[in-house]
Amino acid sequence: MSLPLHVTAGMSLLPKFVVLQRIQWLETRKRAELFAECGLARVWVHSDRVPRMNKIGWTGKQASASMVLCWFVFERGHIGARTFDFLTLPKSRRAACLWPQRN
Fold first, then answer.
1. Is residue 86 in some structural domain?
2. Per-residue pLDDT averaged across 33-45, rounded?
3. Which of 32, 40, 44, 49 is disulfide-compatible with 71, CB 3.0–4.6 A?
4. DSSP letters of 3-56?
5. How many domains, the chain?
6. Per-residue exposure over 5-40, b if at least 16 CB sit within 10 Å of its own CB, e if not
């Protein structure tokens, strides 16, 4: 199942659906239609490049943080302007928010 189908299916079941995706996901006419139909309400852009996650215990080359990610927030019934803003985390919280914690 493609991501647009996940969004459509998610919005049919939930009042709010959130997707973490590259900023390039804003591009194309087809997605513009999806955004309008599924109620894209907000886009939160990570101000800093988000570290790529590797499997826990991975000992190979670490993935680089070469892409800009955004949270796309869809809300059922959303009408009107979309909010576009930046998400900035304090340096001390970045790793804790982006990497899984092991107990």
1. yes
2. 90
3. 44
4. HHHHHHHHHHH-SEEEEEEEGGGG-SHHHHHHHHHHTEEEEEEESSPPPPP--T
5. 1
6. eebbebbeeeeebeeeeeeebbeeeebeebbeebbb
What pLDDT shows up at residue 10? 86
Question: Is 59 a domain residue?
Answer: no
Residue at 12 is within a domain: yes
In a domain, 103, yes or no: no
- C-beta separation of 39 from 73 below 8 A: no
| Whole-angstrom distance, CA of residue 67 vs CA of residue 48 | 9
Whole-angstrom distance, CA of residue 4 vs CA of residue 56: 29
Cβ neighbours for 20, distance < 8 A, ≥ 6 positions apart: 69, 70, 71, 72
pTM: 0.72
Region 7-31: mean pLDDT is 89
Range of the domain at 91: 3-53+64-98
Using a pLDDT cut of 90, give the percent of the chain over it: 24
